[in-house]
Amino acid sequence: MRLYCEGCQYPQNTCICDHIDKVKTALDIIIVQHEKEAHHAKNTVRLLSLCIPSTQVVCASDNSAMAALEMQCSHKHSALIYPSETSTPLENASATMSNQISTLILVDGSWKQAFGIVKRNPWLGGLPAFHFTNAPDSNYLIRHTSVASALSTLEATAYAISCIENTNVLALHRAQSALQKMWQGPQSHRRKVQ
């Protein structure tokens, strides 16, 4: 039987508690998570929640939780980080617009899963939506993706926070790096760097 750390909830032999530091942000971070991601050992939302404990994670298949989230999110103060035909570059958001954002919503799942979540919840698509044009390359190499510019949910959140608040988010990147160093999966599961 595998033993788990009570602090980080990772297996004891991959415990990353010593690498977790809190990130202070005035933003409310909400992650709408695909149900398959919730139990994926390599998802970065757990890391995000360790560094920003106020992070709210909502399972996309929980209809009552999604309905409550819809009521909670104001069109004036909430922003969806999701590339679409109507999204605008977050880097180009005016200072006034950035100051109005108090809630960041990100969708956690594969591109196909994220598309399905937004399609099933049209109110998400009705929120002001932003995408990235100058985000750094992903450093998350223990999961495969076919999208060259894809970021982990943690990386996307860190970049969005830094664009809006200019807050130091290095603790998030350090936590992700620590997880990758401790990860004991086979090399074939790692993303190939080009």
UniProtKB/TrEMBL annotation:
Its EC number is 2.5.1.25. The keyword S-adenosyl-L-methionine applies. One of its GO terms (biological process) is tRNA processing. Residues 1-188 form the DTW domain. The keyword S-adenosyl-L-methionine applies. Keywords: S-adenosyl-L-methionine, Transferase, tRNA processing. InterPro entries: DTW (IPR005636), DTWD2/TAPT (IPR039262). It is an enzyme of class 2 (transferase). It holds the Pfam family DTW. GO terms for molecular function: tRNA-uridine aminocarboxypropyltransferase activity. Belongs to the TDD superfamily. DTWD2 family. This is tRNA-uridine aminocarboxypropyltransferase. It comes from Alteromonas mediterranea (strain DSM 17117 / CIP 110805 / LMG 28347 / Deep ecotype).
